[in-house]
Design brief:
8-stranded mixed β-sheet, 6-stranded parallel β-sheet, 9 helices
């Protein structure tokens, strides 16, 4: 049984935040036990617990509650094997370090840090944390569940070899309004980068950014990035990624196109009381997997309990994810920011 402590159990006023759903999946996992919850105040933690128990399942009796004023005790608790970090992004690096120092496996919500003018310094700091984790035999993985999409397609023999072209479109709704471009980028870019990694486009030095643009409308925001990648066979892959937020979108979806011959549309659906993931590939019948978040949590729990198993994103892949996200920000989106287009 893997004993789990989560910090950041709720959602913010804009409706964003994944802690509530992560706790739902912990409670559904027979090999996981929620033993601790960290949050801003006791009142805010109890509010999140009430919401979870009203919608899903009861929190285990004896779960320890840690407000910020005693959060150090959360990380040093002997009742935690694995820390899940779902708190605001600016807290991530500090909480990762505290977890590793206290010999806890870490499963951190993406991105691992905020994008600003000291990205290189943060990457160097993060690299040191990964070295510390590896030395201690600890997992430090990013929660980026859409990395499973290429894995599922490959396992079901639906994913052709990538030859020269790749396009990824990530579409989300606007819960309480359209996000400023920088926030939209931070919220979504890791989903696209994780898919690139599962296509083995994982070497930051092999990328060339061709163009970056941002479009605003009354009912949508859109970030578009074009790139090329020189793969291990010295063949050039031309890629385009698009992040879309629209008031007309209800459920998030991912569209993947390769080489003008393959298209997959992947979205979350609710069937009865269950959450599923729908895959529509070319003209094939629609197929389903379990909810992507459920799979991501289960793989992390399995990796902690059985060292021969791997999480959805390994330590190396998780660090590569941060380097690629940072490259996209530094090479493109920061230039738009300087023109006040990212506010």
């Amino acid at each position: 049984m893997v004993r789990i402590g989560i910090i950041g159990p709720g959602r913010n006023d804009n409706g964003y935040g994944i802690g509530t759903f992560i706790i739902r999946e912990i409670l559904n996992n027979s090999n996981a036990l929620l033993t601790a919850i960290g949050g801003t105040t006791i009142q805010s933690i109890k509010k999140s617990i009430q919401e979870i128990e009203n919608k899903y399942s009861k929190i285990p009796v004896g779960t320890e509650l840690y407000p910020l004023e005693i959060i150090d005790r959360f990380f040093s608790s002997e009742n935690i094997d694995m820390v899940i970090i779902a708190s605001p992004t600016p807290t991530h690096l500090n909480y990762i370090e505290l977890s590793i120092q206290n010999n806890k496996h870490v499963f951190c919500e993406k991105p691992l840090f905020s994008f600003d003018n000291i990205i290189d310094e943060k990457l160097n700091y993060l690299q040191g944390l990964y070295k510390m984790a590896e030395k201690k035999g600890l997992i430090l993985s990013v929660n980026c569940q859409r990395a499973y999409i290429p894995v599922f397609l490959a396992e079901n023999k639906l994913l052709p070899e990538l030859k020269s072209e790749l396009e990824i479109v990530f579409s989300i709704g606007a819960k309480t309004g359209l996000l400023p471009p920088k926030e939209l980028f931070e919220l979504c870019i890791s989903h696209l980068s994780s898919i690139l990694i599962k296509f083995n486009l994982n070497n930051q030095s092999k990328y060339s950014i061709l163009n970056i643009d941002f479009n605003k409308g009354n009912d949508h925001h859109q970030c578009v990035l074009s790139f090329s990648y020189l793969n291990q066979k010295d063949k050039l892959i031309n890629g385009k990624m698009r992040i879309e937020q629209s008031k007309n979108v209800e459920l998030a979806s991912v569209k993947i196109r390769t080489d003008n011959s393959f298209e997959a549309i992947v979205s979350g659906v609710k069937i009865g009381a269950d959450f599923k993931t729908s895959y529509r590939v070319n003209n094939n019948p629609e197929i389903f997997s379990r909810d992507l978040l459920s799979i991501s949590i289960d793989k992390m729990v399995d990796a902690v309990s059985t060292p021969s198993n791997a999480p959805l994103l390994t330590n190396n892949e998780s660090y590569c994810l941060s380097t690629i996200d940072s490259m996209f920000w530094q090479s493109g989106f920061s230039k738009l920011s300087s023109k006040n287009e990212m506010e």
